[in-house]
TrEMBL record, chain A:
Identification of the protein by name: LSM10, U7 small nuclear RNA associated
UniProt domain Sm: residue ranges: 15-87
Recorded superkingdom: Eukaryota
GO cellular component, one term: cytoplasmic U snRNP body
One of the record's GO molecular function terms: histone pre-mRNA DCP binding
Residue stretches spanning the membrane: none
A family per Pfam: LSM
Amino acid sequence: MAVANLLLRTIAENSMVVLLQGLQGEVTTVDLRNESTARGRVVNVDAFMNVRLEDVLYRDRRGKLTRLQDLFITGRNVRYVHIPDHMDIMKTIQSQLAKIHRVRNFASHGGGRKEYSKKK
Amino acid sequence: MVLLKNLRPPTEGVRHEQAETTAVMNGQKLGCGTLYVAETRLLWFDGSGMGFSLEYPTIGLHAISRDVSAYPQEHLYVMVNGKLTGENEADMAEKAADDEEDDSSNSSCAGDDDDDDEEAITEIRFVPSDKVALESMFSAMCECQALHPDPEDDDSDNDFEGEEYDVEEAEAEHGHADIPSFYTCDEGLSALTQEGQATLERLEGMLAESVAQQYHMAGVRTEEANGEFEDGMEVDAAAMEAGQFEDADVDH
């Protein structure tokens, strides 16, 4: 399981998905490939760009609006994810990468970090 | 619309099973049956074994709908790319690109219009009698969907099955690092030749270099290493001088 998560972190780290993962908790709009849109709070985005939203206003391609409590959009169906204006994109990417590196250093074999902790 | 017959419950990998669930496909009630959320596919069939199966790669989205003004019953909504002809669900992904947009018709489309923007979709609603089960049904589908990443995605390596990346979960894993077999410092060093020893020191130096960089990079603040993880591996203090290995390639 740890190996699978390590690989997922590697995927995320090497793609813009890492930015989307920083959207957790934000309310945003996702445009789907079939022209429908979904606006809601981001619960999670995984390495495959599957997006999970809650408290969603879903507009189908004809414009009909529906409220959905929880929504899971398959990554393949995502066309755009709108980044809220107030978000600093570079900072988000950097902090997400930092999280990944922190986790990697703790979990990597040989444990590079723990050997080189700052001496007081 | 053609439904499959003689469907049987899957024998393994069933993440959720929900009996007394009505299936409604494109507005047409198919009757009451049991929904099986299995790792390989989604299955629904009634008491006579008549029903249908869905392949996860063909599912565009799924959701919990509790808005009774939109649809009178709380249900699990599933949007499938393409038409369900019942012949072969595996073809659906291809058909989705070819078929004309046609929501009301339930016949397979002969007039192919190569318009990617107007893919046909199938809307399915699973209405369980037990509304409380909707959360579990939804979660089970999320898990299974994540097991089927898009094989056509060439942005990333998708050769394996994985889980959602969860920072909290990942950080909780600190104590369960997947460490392949390795020597402890004492027994290991004695097993090394002189050349091996030199290689070890060089590699440790590279690690020191990359860690030192991370401490100074972009002002990222990192916490002290948790003392709980000390495993007695002492490092030669000389290796701490990152300058020693300036010419080394740092690969991280």
